[in-house]
Design a protein that fits this description.
This protein has about 170 residues and is mainly α. The protein folds into 2 domains: about 1-40; about 40-170, no CATH class. Helices cover about 75% and strands about 5% of the residues. The chain has 7 helices and 2 strands; from the N terminus they run αααββαααα. The chain has helices spanning about 1-20, 25-35, 45-60, 75-90, 100-115, 125-145, 150-170, and strands at about 65, 70-75. Strands 1-2 form a two-stranded antiparallel ribbon. The longest helix has 24 residues, at about 125-145. The radius of gyration is 20 Å and the shape is globular.
């Protein structure tokens, strides 16, 4: 374990030096630092934290984008990272049987959207729309997954209210 942290630390310092010349290298530096920081944290806690980040980033939207890359913002990055980590997390799927019909309907809608690619005149626009549908399906899924009790819903509403209040007061001042 100490060897891994030493290796990550040395790599972190090396990339930090290179970052002075190439500024976009800051992204791997932050990623390596994050890996060192969360190395001993349970995956369930990481995905729960990423869920909170996704909810906050969904409110801020493109305001949290990487400069120079307008289409790449925190919501999309956090959602993709959550999806990858969520695949490896041990889950209880018993609750999903109650929501089988809505998720099946949404999945059929996406399937029919994929079928319409056959006669689509603008393939790039159609693929973008399908991506947004998949994004919204996953967002609905993780909200339903993490918000199963009223207490969790109250926490989510409070988090949204605090974020919107922060946006409002930052514009007023």
């Amino acid at each position: 374990m100490a060897i891994k942290k030493t290796l990550f630390g040395a790599l972190f310092i090396l990339i930090s030096i290179i970052c002075a010349i190439y500024p976009l290298i800051i992204l791997p530096v932050l990623l390596i630092g994050l890996c060192i920081f969360i190395m001993d944290v349970q995956l369930r806690r990481i995905t729960r934290f990423l869920f909170v980040i996704v909810v906050i980033a969904a409110i801020f939207g493109p305001y949290l984008s990487i400069p120079g890359f307008g289409g790449l913002f925190l919501f999309r990055v956090a959602l993709l990272l959550h999806f990858v980590l969520f695949l490896f997390e041990k889950k209880d799927w018993a609750w999903l049987s109650k929501l089988k019909v809505p998720f099946l309907a949404f999945s059929l809608w996406i399937l029919f959207s994929i079928i319409t690619l056959i006669w689509s005149q603008d393939m790039q626009l159609s693929l973008r729309a399908i991506y947004f549908q998949l994004e919204s399906l996953y967002l609905i899924f993780i909200i339903v997954y993490y918000v199963r009790q009223v207490k969790n819903l109250e926490k989510l509403f409070f988090l949204d209210y605090a974020t919107i209040s922060l946006i409002h007061w930052s514009r007023v001042l």
